[in-house]
Amino acid sequence: KGKGKGPKGRKITLKIAKESIRQSFDGALRLDLSKMGITTFPNCILKLADVDELDLSRNMLKKIPSTIEKFQKLRWLDLHSNQLEELPSTIGTLKNLFYLNLCNNKLISTNLPEELKLLKNLHILNLGLNRLDSIPTTLGDLGELKVMGLFDNALTSIPESVTGLPKLKKLNVERNPFPELEIEEEDVDPIKRIETLHLVQEKDLCRSCLRMCRGERENLKELGNMTPSPSKKPSFPLLLTPNSTAKDNQDEWRVR
Question: Annotated region Disordered: where (predicted)?
Fold first, then answer.
């Protein structure tokens, strides 16, 4: 009676599994065991290994057995929102796999099998919401990959072999702790304030405009060379305030 082993989970029988098979509009057979409260992989479904799609998402699975290799016809494998900490190397034998969703699990980088690179027909791979701090460079061998999710992990870089995949159209890497580029404020602010900037050569300016531009340039140089004096109070000789230099002519300050 001693130690608890966590939630027992629902037992899936072969009858339940057969009743969970659906046929899609294109004729594909889909075994949908999502949201069933499953804690261990139901071995009985190995007798249904001729399905095209397998959905085990939103359960409490911690492990996928090596017998997953029995599903050789599998094109669609959805394992998102479980508690998976590792994958079997035999997942690389599923050569027809088109879609693989591993989002929202507990996968770490060292437990991603190198055999993932063997999924040459894979078009969509979702590894978001895991605990990955690096991505294997070997994923750059997935030449057919078009969509990849790496969001909400602990990544600080993405291998060039992955970003350079020839058919990759969408790569989601949001909410990872990538190092930010340090840009000084003085280099950014002037650009932010410019809405439109027109550049011309001196030869295209008339004489008066050229003199004005050169004069402005000299003024900017003088301002740049000036060093402010902290001890000297600023003087505003043209600023008149009531009851000061205008005290002899206060009627002009009053609203009539």
Answer: 221-256
Give the domain CATH number at 110: 3.80.10.10
> Does residue 163 belong to any structural domain of this protein?
yes
What tens digit of pLDDT does each residue of 88-120 get? 999 999 999 999 999 999 999 999 999 999 999
How would you classify the pairing of strands 29-32 and 21-23? antiparallel
CA distance 199 to 215: 17
3-class DSSP string for 233-244? CCCCCCCCCCCC
Kindly report, residue by residue over 165-198, the tens digit of the pLDDT: 999 999 999 999 999 754 344 444 433 333 333 4
Domain total in the chain: 1
Measured distance CA(241)–CA(245) in Å, rounded: 7
Find the domain containing 151 and state its range. 23-172
Separation of alpha carbons 70 and 88, rounded Å: 13
Enumerate residues 6+ apart whose C-beta is below 8 A from 216.
none
Given this model, what pLDDT does residue 194 score?
Answer: 31
